[in-house]
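[Backbone geometry]
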Amino acid sequence: MIEILVVIAVIVILTVAMVKISQNVSTSAKIKVTQSTIQVLCAAVEEYSDYHDAPPPSDVNDGSLYSELYKVPKCRKILDKLPEKSMIGTVPDITIIDAWGIPLDYTPPADGNPPQVYSAGPDEIPENADDIRSNEL
């Protein structure tokens, strides 16, 4: 009887460990997808800036960043590299989201800082340590 309880306890411990490992792998994969999405967006913002001699305006943070970038032909080719799961809507009215389904934020350059694209990260709460920011990639 004791042997059966020991076996059950071992199975429970292994199951809990596997679930935790699976969650960590899933979170890591989502972070990588979000970083990749941000890098593609940054490349498009840079191309837009070269084309217009100015970055996208600050009022595009309402989900219209994609629409603004889409106006530049070379940006379209860059935006085609975005994973389908990172977009909601239809061209050109697309909102770009992170791997947790939260829209990415865009901040135009200010005070000598470059433009920034960022995600609230795994906890989905902005402005804390787990945020994923373009200037940190």
Notes: Residues 84 and 96 are 10 Å apart (CA to CA). The chain has a mean pLDDT of 91. Strands lie at 87-90, 93-96, 105-107, 116-119, 132-133. The domain at 26-136 is CATH 3.30.700.10 (Glycoprotein, Type 4 Pilin).
